[in-house]
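User: Some background: our group keeps a shared notebook of sequences we're curious about, and every so often someone picks one and asks for a predicted structure to add to the entry. Today it's my turn. The entry only has the sequence so far, pasted here. Could you supply the structure so I can complete it?
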Amino acid sequence: MKKISLLFGIHMHQPVDNFGEAVDEAIQKCYKPFFETMAKYPEFKFSVHCSGWLFEQIVTKQPEIYTNIKKLTDSGTIEWISAGYYEPILSSIPSSDRVKQIKKLTSFIDKKFNSTPKGLWLTERVWNSAIVPDLRKSDIDFALVDDYHFLSSGFDKNEMNGYYTTEESGEKINLFPISTALRYALPFYSVNDAIKSIEARNSSENSAAIIFDDAEKFGLWPKTHEWVYEKGWLKDFVEAVLKSETIQTAHFEDFAKQNRSKGIAYLGNTSYIEMGEWSLKAKQTLALEELKQKVGDKYFEDVGIAFIKGGIWHNFFVKYKESNYLHKRMLYMSKKQKKMSKNELEYLYKLQTNDVFWHGVFGGLYLPNLRDNAYRFLLELEKSFAKNRISIEAEDIDMDGYDELKVLSKSLSLLFSSKNGAQMIEFGSLKSLFNWQNTLTRREEAYHQKISNPTVKEQSEDNKIETIHDISTPFDEELKSELIYDWHLKYSFIDHFSDSAFSLENFKNVSFKEIGDFANQPFELDKTTTTFKRDGGIYLDGTHKTSLQKRYTFQKDSFSLNLTCRSNFDKKAYYGVEFNLHFAHPQSVLFNGNLITNGLNLKEIKTLEIYDDFTNQKIIIKMDKKMDLSAYILNTISQSESGFDKVAQQISFILSSEFIKDFDLMIEVQNV
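Assistant: Of course. Here's the predicted structure to add to the notebook entry:
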């Protein structure tokens, strides 16, 4: 039998404008030692994809890594693989943007290395056949997906040792199935077991063992730096492959030229198996895990994989309102790109970076800095469209079936939702390029079960290490107290009615009794008067018809709310207007000169002055009636590669008093 061709590739990526220390850690623990090691073995052919922004950092700031990469390219060792320059999910961005992003990265590689990629790394392996014509427009001949894409579409698991051909509207492209087994084997198994896993793919003549995965597995993931470099796994693996009588290294493009396609393939809209689970809501994920346990591993792997599956990547826009909103704001701006300069187009493309739109093992959407970066790019674009006059639009930007009120002044970008309680869902400063409304709602996640019901895993064997999906982490009992879930979106101008006074405790724990139906219900929007109105009710000892009208008016650096409540309810009750504002440093924000720390109560205030040290701006709220303040720092619990993180996202506060029927409030932003 002929030697099996090892098609080995790595994917390198860091989110655009990620923290410098995070990038430096990846360079020192992973990218630098990887290419130092591989530079010693130019006869070991492999493939590389690197996202554009990270590529820029390496070329301009890491000459040692760049020299090794160029040396390996010039020797014919490295085969370059393209993708969207700023690593977007291609099926989530407009067609023209796909082509521009791919061609931008291809051009960058060609310019630096005199090499034109013909293959495409499919970001997060999110496949949708609609992208095929755009790949062909971008001069791409083949793309990399997972074997799971094929298996979940009914293909035989024993036929994943070559490539297939697919088409869309008559445009064809080749697809290579990455081996899930090899993804879990390299670099986590011992070298001997890894070699056996590769050889197991050699089931027929001209077979290929296909592995293309995150470079960060080779040094950045927990425990891998010691395993891969200090204990010499990568060196030993490369030498074992080169000495092997059954394995030869090869490039994807060459393999496709030298071997025929295994036939036509049409794949479902999918990604890798874990992504399908992450994109489901918590109860669905837990139910899917239970179902897989009931049918057993053998049935699932042999037959059930084509029928038992999770959701699709785009479900993250359904699961997380905040992700959907940011994505649809990107699409809204993309429609305006004909009016953008070259620099402004770069902000649009950076806004399309995938990391912020989803959440799995990595922080993603839960990481405030990623959302801050995305909103900075968005506000850079809005700033270019801002005029001296105030522009007001009513449009269903987030595609939820209800219009949003969009307001753009010379200094502020504001949006209000008619579907969700006339809440303010964007509060962006065009001076500091910061969105104070960049908040998250506390939701149940499937992995919260590991906090509320922790289990101890057995230690891994000496001849392997745990993957990031299996790693055991210590549990913090305090995390359990933070598992609080919200029943409404956590934006601002949320109207609450209760039969008892609001306090810090019942506000934080969401334990007050809501007797109104205005916090998360639709309002009618009158664009001409910028007024939202809802005919609802107060429900205490019967139903009391209640009408709430919220009129927003706008100035250059401020805006006002006039609230009018009409009701036949005549018993004692309390009204509160809730705000949730995001800050880069919530622990250092001052509320009337006070830190929030473990919570803050202020009585009978008419002015609230919030000082944000990060933007060096003040948000001043003036009320026509004295109100009480209760405020706390809201934490979300995020899963990450290191375990579970308590992330301080925002400050939540409520201004409350006994039941009021008329209320005026003004918010002004001042530069300090």
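Suggested note for the entry: DSSP finds 21 helices and 26 strands in the chain. Residues 4-267 form a domain with the 7-stranded beta/alpha barrel fold (CATH 3.20.110.20).
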